[in-house]
Task: structure prediction
Amino acid sequence: MKIETTDPVAHPELIYYRRCTVDLTNGEQKFEDVSCQNLEDVLGGFGRSFQLLAQRTISTAYCDENPLIVNTGLLTGSSAMTGLRTYFSSFSPIKGSKAGLPAAMWSTGSGKFGAKFKWTGLDELIFENRSEKPVYVLIKETVNGPQIELKPADHLLGLSTHKKIMALQKEYDNAHFAAIGQAGENWQNVYMGAVALSTENQLKTGEDKLRFAGRGGMGSMMGYKNIIALVAQSSDKNKPLTDAVKKVNRNVVKGGGSARLQPIKRGGGGGTWAAYDVMQPFHAVPFRNYRPQGNNLPEKLFRENVEKNYNIESGACYRCGITCHNYISEKNADGSRGEFIAKFDYEPLNLLSTNIGIHEAGQAGRLIQLCDNYGMDAISLGVTISYTLSYNERHPEKPLLNGATFGDYEKIRELIINAGEGNSPEIGKGSMRLSQSTGETSYAYHVKGLELPAYQPETNPGYCWAIAGAHMTMGTYGMLIREGKSDVDSWVKAITEEKLHIVGFDLIGLCKFFDITQGIGTQMVVDCLKSEFNLEIDPNKIKEAVRRAFLYAMALEFRQGYTKEEFSLPTEVWKNPNPNINLPNITNPEFMAELSEKVWAVFDKELEEIRDNNIS
Amino acid sequence: MQITISLHGVFRIGRFKEEVCDYPLGSTAQSIVDDLKISVTLLGIVLINGVHAAAEDILHDGDSLMLLPLLEGG
Ligand code: SF4
Result:
């Protein structure tokens, strides 16, 4: 970024980001310093990429006109803790309206690729059209600024995400990597391909400890464009920590927001996995395709039970003190750590275990590992499988695919392998399309075509207004469980005011765990921007930009054919309420109708203005 | 007065799952949290007789108190 002002609100045009546009058909490249048009452009991430996507008329994701945008946030690569995010944006192959149009989508992950990308001197890389031959893209720092090279990738084809990265690591030092797996290569039949991002831990140990930009099929888009991997090669550019950033980072680590995620031995709650312990007393841990049965089977995956037989370690991304990851490995007879199995993050864990009837930690870990190595979104994969198992339970006489049922590890494993290799479009294209083909849509757990995360929809009517993945873009999950809020007005306020601010992190380059309750319109972020870039900004202006970006994305959903009726929960949730969930029923038709009316009363006017001014 | 306390998640480590404990009349949930040396930073949910409550709420003889850690995304 080139910054020639201290006031990004009054003078965004004096802030420039370095963009390279690559035409994949002929390799032509255009480097430019683009002047920002508004604060969303300055902050980056989807705030910037969606303004570009809105300029395109796209009726199918897999077309030449649909760009793939790789960018970072303003604080990616900075010394602010968690400043590691990379964003991948495009019209999505998996998320789409009933009108048949693809939704604009972004996906993001940590690891160290984002920081390395930023340190090459580039802020944004746009891929136009598609390459005839498989390539990987080298982005490297040189004395003359960032350079891009397209290189043949035949030797990487057919390898897993992890093996691709390890192969590239042999060729490039001082580099980090983003790669697709076999799933992304088979984009025709897999719409849920993820992009794997390398971590320091992975490169040092050789173990498949990756992070993912999973949601929305951005790995499939990479595959469609015939880009097999990205390599960002640059020296590390760690500035000495200023007192101001040191103080912020200390707050992030010690503050309430990240406390639950810290390792237990540091006095924390033990990572995202601990959500099991909090939700189970309410019988709200997703179970057998989101139908908790009021039993204690989910407890088999409580940490206290898993660590009897497996080794658990915590881990972190580069320089992150939050340390939110848990890794599960085999335990040797002498109690020492054996072979590494997989990460145990809450979403992939639940959706590839309890929610598909698997209650053994090692089996769960092996399924997560398969999903990661094939490079699929664990949420979309897990939920499409749980839909299949639920269908098979209802139709034992005429089951889908291999007839897998809940808990049948071997057959579920086979489903994942077939999907990852592109041999099972039924699974690979996601639950919306599969349920449309069977005609049984009521128990397909997606909203607007994107599968739900591992929080029961009964606990979160806010899912309907999430814009790019139901928990990462609407922070209302957990509100009923945590606060017991069951009145419509609290939910309206949460959806339309406080909880949409979670998307701010997907502009600026930070993880949500930086300050999940407050968002980015805070003194902590203001202090980082001042210290890192000498930018002066009122936190309320940041909040306004986040709100604009959120509503802009929603306006774009409507432009892509969504109707308000599609902002709804799966039918089973309200038509056949689950009596086992030990919480007030806030998803009944009356509650939802009143909530919907009140939410739209707030959003409609602002959406209209955005549509009139920006999105035709 | 007697309070049935159930603990969840990390709060169980070095403590218990469920116990009936004696506390003086007028005790609040917070005073029990302090007595059990539970981390205030980690405390997310307080339920008294199955209903969401505030830490400063006063307990009565025979009440059940459930203490759960924070739930903050996944
Ligand atoms: S919060 Fe977790 S995912 Fe984010 S940077 Fe830290 S360790 Fe990585």
